[in-house]
Amino acid sequence: MNDLEAHLLAAHSEGEKHALITLYEEAATAAKTPEAEGFFLTQAYVYALETGHPKSADLHRRLKTTGREA
To answer: CB neighbours of 68 closer than 8 A, spacing ≥ 6?
Structure first.
């Protein structure tokens, strides 16, 4: 398991939604396939929406740019 995976698991277990936004966005940037990037961006976006995080709009734009959102 790499550091990013370990941090994601820890943030999930501790319910740290703001950390999850950052970590999933980082995972999307590091993703090796468009499918993985889309998955991680979607996760970041969902947590951003749940928390009213200011990154919601930026994440939505990224999803649209990658063709994941209409």
So the answer is: 38, 41, 42
